[in-house]
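Late entry, evening session. Most of the bench is empty. Finally got around to the prediction I had been postponing all week. Sequence below, unchanged from the version circulated by S.P.
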Amino acid sequence: MRGCSLKKQRRNDIVAEAVSNVFKPDKINYELLGNGCPHIHWHLYPRLKRDTPIINSVYQLPNSALFDESTRPSDEVRKDYINRIKNEIERLLAL
């Protein structure tokens, strides 16, 4: 696949490890896409046991649940997540 080098895969591995270290999920779902954009890109979904009413892809949820604003983290919490992930990536790269 054009543009999918081992170097890029290593970056994905580091990001996934950082997300795992920050959120402590039970597992991570990986999704590789490229049909809607002119490049391939990854989505990482940290998952917790019973985080959805059914054990399946998050896309199986109704849109009312998937886009429920009451479950969206506040801007302050999202900024904290971003900083924690960035710091963890920097820590992992320094190893």
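Two things to note before I forget:
The first strand starts at residue 27 and ends at 33.
Strands lie at 27-33, 41-47.
Will write this up properly tomorrow.
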